[in-house]
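Supplementary Text 2. Reproducibility record for the structural model of the 292-residue chain.

All settings were left at their defaults, and a single model was retained for analysis rather than an ensemble. We include the record here because the model underlies the residue-level annotations in Supplementary Table 4.
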Amino acid sequence: MAERKPEWLKIRLVTGENFNDLKKMMRNKTLHTVCEEARCPNIYECWANRTATFMILGDICTRACRFCAVKTGLPTELDWQEPERVADAVEQMGLQHAVITSVARDDLNDGGATIFAETIKAVRRKNPLCSVEVLIPDFQGNWEALQTVMDARPDILNHNIETVRRLSDRVRSKAKYDRSLELLKRAKEMQPDIPTKSSIMVGVGEEWDEILQAMDDLRSIDCDILTIGQYLQPTKKHLKIEKYYHPDEFDRLKEEGLKRGFKHVESGPLVRSSYHAHEQVNSAHKSMSGNA
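Retained model, structure tokens:
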């Protein structure tokens, strides 16, 4: 069992005007955010800066991953007006970069891919200068569903492997390590100019060499962007924290990632997949165009 939560993981609570305005707008538009549903530690900082990750396709997930606080069960919601409401919210917030994710919807034939595509299109239609990043589930290996998303041409295609190969089955519900790698590989083959991105959380029992191997696995399928953060146990029912990584260790992991050829690596105790996402898209596109 890990030691007490260290000082560098203390979260500064900022609940000013922007935070309250954003919370009110989300409720008025009946929208969900992964910031709230997954109990993200950066919600105060991000919402104070008027940035948020929209969670579409409802707030009930068909999977029960042992690290995630999102509700699990049988979803009933499929709202075809949701893409327009997300686009309206992006416009109202004045976002330059929008991140859209979802619960896993294994109950749908396409896993929700059509709603993802329609949301990308709606955001672009109302916010032509806003870049769009999607963080998608694995669609249970339905590559036609993936093609639907890629044809809508998001600015970044994000899918998280979450952990190292050895721990994947224990940490993730129904997801498969190799299927996640294949999804990222196929996404790059479908649209080679769209950066791909993935994330690893540490502190669930992995070894250092296993993290480096996961990096190598992602680079072998030309993944462009990597984020690495500390796992935090959302409730007592979830996986226990095995280790708190020191900020210096996160710095070393960033160095290892850049050495392996990732175009951008975001690594730190409170880093999550969409943390500083607006900076990542600029960095990746510059590198891919040969300007960095």
